[in-house]
Amino acid sequence: MSEATATTAPSANEPKRAPEYEERSRSNEVLSDILNGNFVISILAVLFALVIGAILIAVTNEDVQTASGYFFAAPGDTLGAIWNAVSGAYGALFQGSIYNFRRDGFLDGIKPLTDTLTFATPLIAAALGIGIAFRVGLFNIGGRGQMLIAAACAGWVGFSFELPWGVHLALALLAGVVGGALWGGLVGLLKARTGAHEVILTIMLNYVAFYLISWMLRTPGLLQAPGSVNPKSPAMLETAVMPEILGPKYNLHLGFLLVIAATIFAWWLLNRSSLGFTFRAVGENPNAARVAGINVKNTYVYAMLISGGLVGLAGVMQVLGTVTTGFSAGIDAGIGFDAITVALLGRSKPWGIFAAGVLFGAFKAGGFAMQAAEGIPIDIVTVVQSLIVLFIAAPPLIRAVFFLPKQGVRRRTVPSVSKEVTAK
Amino acid sequence: SNGDSTEAASDFLPCIVSDAGGFDDKSFNQSSYEGMAEAADELGVEMKEVESDTEDDYAPNISSLVDQGCNLIATIGFALAEATSAAAEENPDVKFIMLDDGSIDAENVKPIIYDTAQAAFLAGYAAADYSKTGVVGTFGGMQFPTVTIFMDGFADGVAYYNEAKGKDVKVVGWDVEGQTGSFTGGFEANDTAKQLATTLIGQDADVLLPVGGPIFLSAIEAIADSGKEVAMIGVDADLYETADSGQELFLTSILKQMKSGVYDVVLAAGNDEFDATPYVGTLDNDGVGIAPFHDFEGKVSDTLQGELDDIKAGIIDGSIEVVSPSSPVAK
Amino acid sequence: MKLELRGITKRFGSLVANDDIDLTIEPGEIHCLLGENGAGKSTLMNVLYGLYQAEEGEVLLDDVVQRFAGPGDAMRAGIGMVHQHFMLIPVFSVAENVMLGHEETGFGGRLNLDAARAKVREISARFGFHVDPDALVGDLPVGVQQRVEIIKALSRDAKVLVFDEPTAVLTPQETDELMTIMRQLKSEGTSIVFITHKLREVREVADRITVIRLGKVVGEASPTASNSELAALMVGRSVELTVQKEPAQPGPAGLIVRNLDVIDHLGLKVVNNVSFDVRAGEILAIAGVQGNGQTELTEAILGLQPRVTGEISLNGTSLTGLSVRKILNAGVGFVPEDRTEDGLVGQFTIAENLMLDRSDRPPFVKNGNLQLGFLAEFAQEKKDEFDIRCESIYSRAGQLSGGNQQKVVLARELSRDLKLFVASQPTRGIDVGSIEFVHKRMVATRDAGIPVVVVSTELDEVVALADRIAVMYRGSIVGIVPGNTPRDVLGLMMAGEVPSGVAA
Amino acid sequence: MTTTTAPESISASLESATIKSWKAPIAYAIFTLIAILLFVVNGRDGVSRFRLSNEADVIQLAPIDNPTRLTCILLVVLLIAITVYATWLSSRAKRVPLWLTILFAVAFMWAFLTWAAAGETIPITGLLLGTVALSAPLIFGSLGGVISERVGVVNVAIEGQLLAGAFLSAFVASVTGNPWAGLVAAMVAGVLVSFMLAVFSIRYIVDQVIVGVVLNVLVAGLTSFLYSTVLTSNTPLFNSPPRFPRISIPILSEIPILGPVLFRQTVIIYIMYIAVFVVWWGLFRTKWGLRLRAVGEHPQAADTVGIRVNPTRFWNVAIAGAIAGFGGAYFTLGSVGGFTKEMTAGAGFIALAAVIFGRWDPIRATLAALLFGFATNLQNVLGAIGSGVPSEFLLMLPYVVTIFAVAGLVGYVRGPAASGKPYIKA
Ligand SMILES: Nc1ncnc2c1ncn2[C@@H]1O[C@H](COP(=O)(O)OP(=O)(O)OP(=O)(O)O)[C@@H](O)[C@H]1O
Ligand SMILES: Nc1ncnc2c1ncn2[C@@H]1O[C@H](COP(=O)(O)OP(=O)(O)OP(=O)(O)O)[C@@H](O)[C@H]1O
Ligand SMILES: [Mg+2]
Ligand SMILES: [Mg+2]
């Protein structure tokens, strides 16, 4: 994270004329970022969000409400009820996402952690796509549509062709990624050709994709399972299903390795490749990029193709990894939208997104246990997640809340999604 | 049947998973939940419930319940079929109730399905008989078989009426032949649903059959706003009894007795009498049916009830065939 | 009104922009502030105007200490300011811009636009401006926009007026008009602070001169001081003010432009039937008031304009209709007019900016991979060669001062294998020290046998650099004249007049 | 030295050249082609009846009976004529006027309705009435968006403002039994979301798009959570809001066609009419609007004339939230009773699209919202009269229409210059 460079002039009298500045490398900046408290701030932000979640859990808990009715008679009851409610909830969250102490043995107990990674898998893939679009200055709200189209393409290949092991999976994967890429690329193309705003296009295409897939799913001969009247596809053939990488005991599938590869790819693309260089240039200053010979319009198309492809990868994970028994029009499972939050939390940087995706995966995995064990609506997880993003983005707030010392003026660069090329 | 239930029930934990509609969908999730809650009460045991939001949630929700020690899990809606099937295979000692899907054939899964077309047929006949404008309308939430089966039966009932009486009552909002019609695109009582109902009323329909959870609420609003005399037909439960408002509008309701269906199975399981034979609700076993006319008693023709009884008998004995492409099949 | 600044210190983070500055402006005097780029002149004025809050020090008006929470307070106290960067809203009309902040309103907050129009007309009449109150500011030429800024400042009857580099975008004639207005205001008792980099203007109009360097007052100078004395005081060393160059050794024609038309998005011919040649080893300067088609002409050469007709060829190969990338690869170097908008990516590091227009080919890219090691060496080398003052080659380009930003652009463009060099306003807004450097590099480029096109609105620069001068007016070339053409002739040509004896 | 050319003022206009734009004729041609294929080649027989009055109306207009095939052919000929004319205009480098586009759109729509309604009746008033109703939350939302973005704060949080408004209005109106209290609560809810947007984007300088996106998620989570834990615990008490009644405005409501559409509405719709006018008038005619727009275009310029940029932004974002909150109240007090999870179902995003589509102008944004409402309701009507098209394709209609409109007609748009950029003072 080399974004915040504090201007340190060695001598106050000679603000700009002192050429002998110390050379600072990028790794030094990452280090100084952590030392300057970014890491601490992140932890505290998560903590603060959890505290607010706890308050919500406590005030809506029936036992707490009953006990608080006679609070002054027996305050211990209320406090006890609060403790029970909150510890029960977060305990279940932990047990559902990291380690379940109620299971015998480490191998069983650790299963929740693998579930966390399983849920993180499509989130990370989609968020990488959205993050890359952010870096080019494009706001891709079309994750849902891109995932649906990708899922349909991958699913169709996955259930209709009998192909050898390996080939089948690869082909289904390819079909899905290409499908997502084209659906995303369509946005890029329309934006480049007609100047239409990508926010409108992606929102509208979400609905178009949803209804298109819904129709295909209930039309015999297209995606509907033969012999069934339900709007649902057949199950994937064995040869197209992502193998479980830790054995049948765990749900973690090959997709997770693919997502690691995708993260490395995205990192390479953005930081080490020529195309990524043009992406970032267009994202930061499309005018200068244009003057420097970069074809801005084509860049939008490429960016949306890649963005759609990565989001499509998430759709593929859904049909070939998570729900392999046939999909319906809800297969995107809201991941297209959650991924926006993940991309923002990860500051549109590949490894940041990876980390944020794992965190959100943990919340998702833990949320089920929390609901089942304590009857707490899973929506609380959404609340906590969104608060985390808000708080991490506003370090001064966290400093104020936790009475940390103020920092010098630092300006944070954020993915700019509002810049456009001036029409000439 | 309550006598020896106590010790069997002591460690009996019935649980229920909704589909994306949630337990307040004024439809099958809610009815099933109420059925289980009543049974749990009766048995004197706790129960657990979890709601699903998305397709991703079904399998994890079921396995979380297994983790919680549930020994009977009701899964609601065809969307949960695969997840249920997989969980049932993995956990042979946990019993499952699979509502609205008959595709699972396993020792520990009891499918509960309903041939609602039969009841809807009666309602269609009644609507056609009642209609003064000669137009009746229907619309649905989304084009799912559990929805269109009502619309098919309804339209067939109208057609049967036309044939029997030599009339020409028209159905707007659903075309059985082409399987196309009016849908709101979701199961929310929103403005789209209201406008759809308004449009049907604008087509002169004076009986409306809204199919899909709470969208009948939108129809009530639309009728109120239209200022016309329009009757409604409820689905699932007798809405004259359960709706918070607009009771006076219900000509009748098409009953799909999910509450009692789930109740019976939970109670049986609590008493160690679980069996996996599929239950198909029909007119014959009163799993489906139509509600009394209540306030409309005096407004329908005197002969209607008699005719309906005859038709019901005809359907039961097979002389009248009611088939919908969406009719459920149990394996 | 007498204005006094006492002990003003203003910091931006760890950078001290103003360091304990004292300044007194007597009633009815024109006080010039001189200093290099980044010396802290604008900052000081912004403190005075209430836009910035100083860490230390106080502002006194007629010996009364003032507390300005914002510009509103300063304006109420009688301070007006014409800002270095236009503080006009392009989508508003002139009248709306002028009334903004002290609107007259009717029922329900309804704007009284008529009153504002009347005010604009009244002030226009008083100072001989021709400004249409209903014109959209964004549609006006910069010279007129500058007048709108002045009208804005005058419409509030300011007793102290600050002019921060108002002449940067004016023609010589317009500059002269402004001087007249300043003298007129002075005679009415208004105190004026005048900031400019053009020493000629300073000596012409100033009553007193204060020189600021590195945030500190380094001395006062009298208006009779010579240019080189003032420059030395500003920079802290002696500066060469004239460009040392040998006579040109022109070779064959490199760039040939024939019958070039450029049509803008409104369908106006902003470049109209322009033809000229530039020979290898000569500098052709394109002079003219801003907004007469120079920008579009250079952009057309670079392939940046969408609607172009005519022929452009370089060393015999046609450039017309090629993409920007192809034109750059054909060996055209380009310094755009607006370096922050078009020349640099502010969020990128200096190193990244140095490879900006070679982001698809060796040596910076091999097989789609960035060659970061090579880039680092290259950037370090250029940083030293071009004397780019920065923390490191990984500093953000946006954090550099204007002069250093310009050096980054020059370093990038001049380190390519050039067949043609096109520079638009290469020294706009940069200090004398940097100007000296930029001019030297441009002459060196010419001497390397490369055709050079320089667009400049500064006559000083045009005269200093050019071997030949083409003057543009309303999209057409009024005439192409030798480099030693007298300034007054050029001035007339810039106003569209073709003196006899000049080939049109 | 003699001069041969007289000096002219710099601002005098330049020689103008011709730009040929083929966008309009191409768009027309595509639609004409669709029309020929659908309405003529695949033409239908029968009579299409457009009903213009309801039984209850005082002034009864006779329904228009269009012989389906003939009407379609005539209209398609008109479409061809317009396309040819537009092509001629473009070849002469003349602009295709707006009225031509409107004429084209009307003719196309008429042909489409005639074709779709062969042998059926289309209730025109019903179609339009539904349009107004379905557009209402979008219009409120887009007005909120326009104000917020005009003052320089990108408002992606419209969805959250609508949802919060819907939630709180349902709750408060239920508990108090008074829909007016609910309306006030909706404003408060919208303002609360706005405060979050303002605090995080202005005070803590978090990217405005990020805050907006996250607030949507936060509000969705929070309202769903409270719905499950609080509202459903006692639905009659907490979630049975009384509705506003429909008020017919005397005389106005009897104007044929328009009367029933515009003047037999609930008070929220009347507030909407006022809001559209007030926002438009305020933005472009008052001191408030001038300052607001100045802050959104060039905050530093506004600062230099003594306008306090961040407070201006803060309070106007709050106003935007209040207006969007009204839209939320429409869901629960104006339309169908009761709050349900995520009941706004993306209306906020459509409103955001309307803001951009309407180029940050309240009137245009309103028209964009109406277009969307019209397409949605057209879908309803066509589904009900049985057009034979699969329902999903009809449901897609509004979205596809929007894509066509944005890509074909609007093209590149530029928002307020400083929208999305924080103003940081030194
Ligand atoms: N949130 C994070 N969690 C874990 N590691 C991270 C995170 N963010 C960055 N890193 C580490 O930093 C390195 C660079 O990450 P990244 O590509 O995201 O930054 P960058 O793109 O190089 O920064 P810039 O955009 O300034 O070039 C990675 O190799 C990774 O190890
Ligand atoms: N808002 C700001 N934040 C941080 N640094 C600033 C800011 N404004 C100015 N500076 C820095 O303060 C110093 C003084 O800037 P200032 O604009 O006063 O210079 P100046 O003398 O007006 O130069 P010029 O002749 O280029 O206008 C420069 O180093 C500049 O980079
Ligand atoms: Mg990076
Ligand atoms: Mg300055």
TrEMBL record, chain A:
GO MF terms, alphabetically ordered: transmembrane transporter activity
Keyword list, A-Z: Cell membrane, Membrane, Transmembrane, Transmembrane helix
Segments of this protein annotated with the region Disordered: 1-24
Topological category with respect to the lipid bilayer: Multi-pass membrane protein
Biased composition (Polar residues): 1-11
Domain of life: Bacteria
GO cellular component, one term: plasma membrane
Keyword NADP set for record: no
InterPro entries: ABC_transp_permease (IPR001851)
Compartments, as annotated in UniProt: Cell membrane
Compositional bias per record (Basic and acidic residues), positions renumbered to this chain: 14-24
Name the record gives this protein: Nucleoside ABC transporter membrane protein
Organism of provenance: Mycetocola miduiensis
Taxonomic lineage of the native organism: Bacteria, Bacillati, Actinomycetota, Actinomycetes, Micrococcales
UniProtKB/TrEMBL annotation, chain C:
InterPro entries: AAA+_ATPase, ABC_carbohydrate_import_ATPase, ABC_transporter-like_ATP-bd, ABC_transporter-like_CS, P-loop_NTPase
Mode of membrane association: Peripheral membrane protein
Domain called ABC transporter: residue spans: 3-239, 255-499
Record localization: Cell membrane
GO-annotated molecular function: ATP binding; ATP hydrolysis activity
Main location: membrane
Protein name: Nucleoside ABC transporter ATP-binding protein
Species, as recorded: Mycetocola miduiensis
Automatic annotation (TrEMBL), chain D:
Membrane-traversing stretches: 26-43, 68-89, 96-118, 124-146, 153-174, 180-202, 209-230, 267-284, 314-331, 343-360, 367-387, 393-413
Major place of residence: membrane
Membrane topology category: Multi-pass membrane protein
Keywords assigned: Cell membrane, Membrane, Transmembrane, Transmembrane helix
CDD domains for the chain: TM_PBP1_transp_TpRbsC_like (cd06580)
Superkingdom to which the source organism belongs: Bacteria
InterPro entries: ABC_transp_permease
Gene Ontology molecular function: any one: transmembrane transporter activity
GO cellular-component term (any): plasma membrane
Location within or outside the cell: Cell membrane
Keyword Oxidoreductase: no
The protein, known as: Nucleoside ABC transporter membrane protein
